[in-house]
Amino acid sequence: MVLSNLAMACLSYEKTRMSRLHLVLVVLLYCISSEISTSFAELQRFEHAPKDDGSVRFLVVGDWGRRGFYNQSKVAVQMGRIGEKLDMDFVISTGDNFYGDGLKSVKDPAFLDSFKNIYTAKSLQKQWYSVLGNHDYRGSTEAQLSPALRKIDNRWLCLRSFIVNAADIADFFFVDTTPFVIKYIIEKKHHYDWSGVSPRGIYITNLLKDLDAALRKSSAKWKIVIGHHAIRSAGHHGDTHELVRHLLPLLKAHNVDMYMNGHDHCLQHISSLNSPIQYMTSGAGSKAWRGDIKEYDSQAMKFFHDGQGFMSVNLTRSDGLVVFYDVLGRLAMGNKSTMNVSLLFFSAVFLVLVSCCSAADADHELRRLHHASAKADGSLSFLVIGDWGRRGNYNQSRVAHQMGIVGEKLDIDFVISTGDNFYDDGLTGVDDPAFEESFSKIYTAPSLQKQWYNVLGNHDYRGNVEAQLSPVLNGLDSRWLCMRSFIVDAEIVEFFFVDTTPFADKYFTDPEDHVYDWSGILPRNGYLSNILRNVDSALKESNAKWKIVVGHHGIRSAGIHGDTKELVSRLLPILEANNVDLYINGHDHCLQHITTPNSPIQFLTSGGGSKAWRGVVMPYDQSEIKLYHDGQGFMSVQVTPSQVDIAFYDVFGNVLHKWGTSKDQLYSTAMYM
Fold first, then answer.
1. Nearest Cα to 363, choosing from 549, 527, 124, 130?
2. Which one, of 58, 76, 57, 54, lies nearest residue 120 by Cα?
3. Contact in structure between 159 and 147 (CB atoms under 8 Å)
4. In 3-state terms, what secondary structure has residue 252?
5. How far apart are the C-alpha atoms of 263 and 266, rounded to whole Å?
């Protein structure tokens, strides 16, 4: 019965016995029952044909709508680039489409400012399938659901819950998760638009019933469920308990392969220990929450990135590939996950692989971090240690003790590690006890509870490289930060950290009995060319008073390894051309200071963090060697706008060598002490 017929019947009834009040009541009851009944029906289904080869490719982004701010525009640019590269079919939005309080109406300019005018790349002019997030519920939900928006931009399609069918390849089940979360119902801080949802209990019951029926009917090779809220998450919000209780049992019962969500402003991949379901978070379309990660089962946590980015998915009848990208379009900490679908059970078996990053993926500006000096005079002081991670053995603990003493005396700002952080073969994973036994439980002095900036050494490349690069370690110990190549801007100084291990030919041509983890490096030539190009560009753009480059391998060294010829030929010319002041490295297990007559660059080795090589020194021009110590120790550096001072310490904290200079002196006649 339509509403007009019902109204006529009620008017007739009013002529006999009912009052106008009764009429209003009946009409209201009809409207309520109509809303309830519309939520208990088969979910609306849309067809989206796969490619001719039977594949389906799409991007996933969430928590984005901020009028281009918080790097939304930068993420959009990279989405366009990856979308074109993949020839993608559509985009999935995991909700929180318009911040901070959804859309006011279909005429709200936020729709243009945050969607139409942002995602302008040609490859993104495909269908967008969107769900609502909790922030969307703070505005007019009917506005986002309205067909009027499709007239403004025909890409837009947003419903509460619906299905997209890609032939027999995949079924996508979009679920309206916000009404499940009880805190939005009881909190008074924000206003939520519950029209179309109340009464909540019946709405949720019918939604689950519809979803259960649709999943049961599905014969697609892949079953993927999308919602705004996470079922499993190590992010700020954590697991959504209401979904764990009400939704997850359905997903398990019907062999769902993936659950994709936003809500937490990060990228993450969590696997289930008791089911094949893979939990993927793509909620980093704009504002991200740096360092906000909860403790989580290390076996389940495959990947966590606390920056902006998005996700791509490529499905065939037999395989699936999931890739996470950061705000610069690089593989976010090099995460790729591949899947094989079982023709019997349609369940995903994940083989979590480290990335095989192409040269194009590495061809971006170096990531830049800022470290402002906490000192009133703007000066900076830090320690440098290398080749240390031996669970406290070989005097590592003694060196750590003296570092704590000197660090307190100098009121250091941070620590630099020159690599070979964990012997002998790096870390086996983020749950490797060596991280605590060689780092967290060794460098315990109060003065060392500062940021540690780390590069990788050749021994680190013998383990799981992605483990050391993973933000999960930062969750275990907030001091830890390790990347391949990056920049630290400390105002008066800029530090350029360079991944030197891939430069050395011998690790590729004569690895002996060692296995190196080259994921994220190959093809090697492209990777190295991009590093050199990026370092050269960053050095040219730098206006810092002092420029310091940090790598694991020595450019000039009298230690057992000697000069690294590949760095001499490829990196050194860039340093000389851009007036670099200091090059700091480890690799040789000693302390040394070398100068050369044709360059003001000072070559400083701090590789005595634990095991040292007594009596091992190669023939070298004695006029160039200002210090060589074949024992354990470390180095300190103090920098002001006009002066730099370095000191080397042995395992007992004794000062072995001091050197200082002003910028003018460095580029005329250096002063030695």
1. 527
2. 76
3. no
4. helix
5. 9
Element (H, E) at 397: helix 396-410
For the chain, count helices (H), then strands (E).
20, 31
What is the per-residue pLDDT for 353?
A: 27
Main-chain dihedrals φ then ψ at residue 638, nearest 5 degrees: -120, 130
Q: How far apart are the first and last CA of the chain?
A: 97
Would you give the DSSP letter of residue 614?
A: T
Query: Residue 279's closest CA among 263, 292, 317, 50?
Result: 263
Question: Which strands make up the sheet holding 162-166, listed edge to edge?
Answer: 44-47, 162-166, 170-174, 222-226, 258-261, 278-282, 267-271, 301-305
Q: Could you say which DSSP state residue 203 is in?
A: H
Residue 399 near residue 610 (C-beta atoms within 8 A): yes
Where is average pLDDT lowest: 227-236, 238-247, 348-357?
A: 348-357
| Structure tokens that stand for 480 in this block | 């830890």
Residues 329, 306: Cα–Cα separation, whole Å: 15
| Rounded distance between C-alpha atoms, residue 349 and residue 167, angstroms | 22
User: Residue 298's pLDDT is what?
Assistant: 75
CA distance 263 to 240: 10
Confidence of residue 614 (pLDDT cuts 50, 70, 90): confident
Q: What is the 3-state secondary structure (H, E, C) of 345-363?
A: CCCEEEEEEECCCCHHHHC
For residue 377, count other CB atoms closer than 10 A to its CB.
8
Question: Residue 460 is encoded by which pair of tokens?
Answer: 């680190």
Instruction: Enumerate the β-bridge partners of residue 627.
Output: 593
Distances (CA, A) of 65 to 265, 281, 290, 311, 461: 12, 17, 19, 17, 39
DSSP state of 366: P
The three-state (H, E, C) secondary structure of 506-518, written as one string: HHHHCCCCCCCCC
| DSSP H/E element including 541 | helix 524-541
Q: Hey, is 250 helix, strand or coil?
A: helix
Residue 392 neighbours by CB under 8 Å, 6+ apart: 400, 437, 438, 441, 442
- How many Cα atoms sit within 13 Å of 310 on the Cβ side? 31
| Reported confidence tier of residue 187, pLDDT bands at 50, 70, 90 | confident
**Length, in residues, of the chain:** 673
Residue positions annotated with a catalytic role: 561
Alpha carbon of residue 541 to chain centroid? 26
Tokens of 450: 């500062």
**Structure-token pair, residue 504:** 């050395």
Tokens of 247: 């939704």
Task: Specify whether the backbone of 650 is left (phi greater than 0), alpha (psi in -120 to 50) or beta.
Answer: beta
Question: Per-residue pLDDT tens for 493-506?
Answer: 999 999 999 999 99
Count of C-beta atoms within a 10 Å radius of residue 623: 9
In this structure, which amino acid lies at residue 587?
A: H
- Measured CA to CA, the distance from residue 177 to residue 131 in angstroms comes to 9
Q: Is 178 helix (H, G, I), strand (E, B) or coil?
A: helix
Answer whether 631's CB lies under 8 Å from 651's CB. Answer: yes
Q: Which residue has the higher pLDDT, 158 or 292?
A: 158
DSSP class per residue in 19-79: -HHHHHHHHHHHHHHHHHHHHSSPPEEEE----TTS-EEEEEE-S--STTTTTHHHHHHHH
Average pLDDT over residues 298-311: 88
Confirm if 421 and 439 have CB atoms less than 8 A apart.
Answer: yes
Rounded distance, CA 401 to CA 632, Å? 12
> What are the DSSP E strand ranges found in 195-285?
222-226, 258-261, 267-271, 278-282
**Locus of tokens 């190295």:** 528
Angle 366-370-372 (CA atoms, 0-180°, nearest 5)? 155
**What is the structure's pLDDT at 290?**
76
